[in-house]
Design a protein that fits this description.
The complex is a heterodimer of chains A (about 130) and B (about 130). Helix content of chain A is about 80%, strand content about 0%. Chain A is mainly alpha-helical and about 130 residues long. Chain B starts with about 20 loop residues before the first helix and ends with a helix. Classes of the chains: A mainly alpha (about 130), B mainly alpha (about 130).
């Protein structure tokens, strides 16, 4: 039963009703990042400094490619949420806050997808 | 919200009066490493895009990452990743309701600090 007054319902203020889901989603991503980070380190750390051919061959392995893609996916979502709370904490004033949040979120999506595209391109090339 | 008009009323002091503690210091470093890792992951994405582009451009980016400055950035990012990782695990432990006793919380702080260096060394040695 909604306890809002008619006026309250019309104005539309109040809880966004997505708090619990958002909170749990953050924790879910964090738990997922535990094995994904270890997998990412095991796959990518040995490749830093290796030749181009070695890197390409490694990322053509489906299991490695999928693991890195999953890691990038969850990491950039986690990054987006993390940077959001940092910006909300320290930036004041509606204009600067909104602009910075939008730029940051779009940037996370752009870079995340760029990374995933790069791995996919390598994986499909072999 | 401190972007409200506060009129002439003062704000309570915070950073100026509290002594740094294990809890507050480890917490702010989790935040700082998180922000720093943004840069680290942009570099990784750049490296991956270079690998997808071709051997020439990859050689250029690889050269940057394996220069002494690049190696320094990579090692510090690795440490930041482990520190942030252990800090996150501590948060998950707290979220489940465990570890709020002062001695346990302090101990987890030491594990984060020491563990991050140990795991960085292990990663560099093994991988």
């Amino acid at each position: 039963m909604s306890y809002k007054t008619d006026m309250g319902r019309v104005i539309g203020l109040g809880s966004a009703k997505q708090g619990a889901e958002h909170w749990f989603g953050e924790r879910l991503k964090a738990v997922a990042l535990i094995p994904l980070t270890i997998a990412f380190l095991c796959i990518v750390a040995p490749l830093i400094g290796e030749s181009h051919a070695t890197v390409v061959t490694a990322l053509q392995n489906p299991l490695k490619a999928i693991s890195v893609i999953l890691f990038l996916l969850v990491t950039f979502k986690h990054l987006e949420e993390g940077l959001q709370v940092v910006i909300e904490d320290y930036v004041h004033g509606k204009g600067a806050l909104l602009t910075l949040l939008i730029v940051t979120k779009l940037g996370c999506w752009a870079f995340g997808l760029a990374g995933i595209f790069a791995v996919a391109k390598i994986a499909f090339s072999g | 919200m401190s972007d409200m008009n506060r009129g002439n009323r003062p704000l309570s002091p915070h950073l100026t009066i509290y002594r740094p503690q294990m809890s507050s210091m480890t917490s702010i470093f989790v935040r700082l490493t998180g922000i720093g890792l943004t840069l680290g992951f942009l570099l990784i994405v750049w490296w991956l895009l270079a690998a997808a582009t071709g051997p020439g451009y990859f050689g250029f980016v690889d050269g940057l990452l394996t220069s002494w400055l690049g190696i320094l950035v990579m090692v510090v990012s690795l440490w930041a990743l482990w520190y942030h990782f252990l800090g996150g695990v501590r948060h998950l432990i707290w979220d489940m309701g465990y570890g709020f006793e002062l001695r346990t919380a302090d101990m987890m702080g030491y594990v984060m600090i020491g563990g991050s260096f140990v795991m960085t060394l292990l990663t560099l040695l093994i991988l």
